[in-house]
Design goal:
Oligomer: single chain
Number of helices: 12
Strand order of the largest sheet: 1-3-2-4
Largest sheet: 4 strands, mixed
Helix content: 40-55%
CATH topology of the largest domain: Potassium Channel Kv1.1, Chain A
Strand content: 5-15%
Order of helices and strands: EEEHHEHHHHHHHHHH
Number of strands: 4
CATH architecture of the largest domain: 2-Layer Sandwich
Radius of gyration: 26 Å
Distance between the termini: 52 Å
CATH superfamily of the largest domain: Potassium Channel Kv1.1, Chain A
Length: 290
């Protein structure tokens, strides 16, 4: 039998059995921080786990071989890892938001710094990239906003470069950042500083665009824009923090039914193309701001 492991440990009395993974017919106990998981050794194919030294101080309590996982492994993440290995969750039935949480957990726990399972890591990373459409312009879809900061921390920590720009833009345009104590625990100080700077640059660039009334090729159409710009564009933008979200605000301006307001089809087409150009300019400038 191997020597007791040297990973940081908690006292035996502080260890609790997992409510999710305590297989009565299991033959292998794994301890993540202060939570014990009873599983089947043959179901664990990860070399890192199989190679862990046994903790002989805990074996009398559990009646079988016991190993402590590296201290970086979070019990909640490890639970998701085991659900993945045991195929006990129908992931097609999860909400999109929950699916992203699980992918982030799998990336963390299967990474080189934790359980070193390259197959799980590569699969979870690929699924995350596909879910978040790295080539899209602008913020993540609305149902992902609540997860954005946690996803960003994973994207930055594991250098998922294809998602970096879109996640930074999403978080900077949907949260508040200042120089005071951070209210964003999942993000480092350097990241929140970068996000605050990006937010300032976006607002500075977009403010004159938003507050400049659109002009058209025809005077009559220009008059319509002059009359409707405040109630249809500036007002709603100020009410919804649109200054901080230039891509989304410009898309909203494009979607206004200007034809019904009296702008001719030719001028509507021309202005929508112009606003699309503004979106692309902003998106290109983000590269220089991050």
């Amino acid at each position: 039998m191997s020597e007791p492991n040297t990973f940081p440990s908690v006292s035996q009395s502080d260890i609790v059995k997992s409510s999710r993974f305590w297989k009565e017919d299991g033959d292998f106990v794994l301890v993540a921080k202060n939570e014990a998981f009873k599983v089947h050794y043959d179901r664990i194919s990860t070399p890192k786990i199989r190679g862990l030294p046994y903790d002989i101080t805990l074996e009398p309590s559990f009646g079988q071989r016991v190993a402590r996982l590296p201290s970086e492994v979070d019990p909640a993440d490890f639970t998701i890892f085991l659900e993945h290995l045991y195929r006990e969750i129908d992931e097609t039935q999860l909400t999109e938001s929950a699916s992203l949480d699980r992918l982030c957990a799998l990336i963390r726990v299967s990474s080189d710094g934790q359980l070193q399972d390259p197959d799980v890591y590569a699969s979870a990373r690929s699924d995350l990239e596909q879910s978040l459409k790295p080539d899209a312009i602008g913020s993540l879809e609305e149902n992902y906003i609540g997860n954005a900061e946690d996803i960003l921390s994973v994207v930055l920590h594991y250098d998922i470069t294809s998602l970096r720009k879109r996640l930074l833009y999403t978080v900077s345009t949907t949260s508040h950042f200042d120089s005071g104590p951070s209210s964003h625990p999942s993000l480092s100080t350097s990241t929140t500083t970068l996000l605050a700077s990006l937010q300032d640059n976006l607002i500075s660039h977009f403010t004159p665009i938003l507050f400049t009334v659109a002009t058209a090729s025809h005077m009559a159409c220009t008059d319509v824009f002059a009359e409707k710009w405040m109630p249809l564009v500036i007002g709603p933008a100020l009410e919804t923090s649109g200054l901080c979200r230039p891509v989304e605000t410009l898309r909203g301006i494009q979607e206004i039914e200007w034809e019904k307001e009296g702008v001719c089809e030719e001028c509507c087409k021309e202005k929508r193309e112009e606003w699309e150009g503004e979106i692309r300019v902003i998106w290109e400038k983000v590269d220089g701001w991050i």
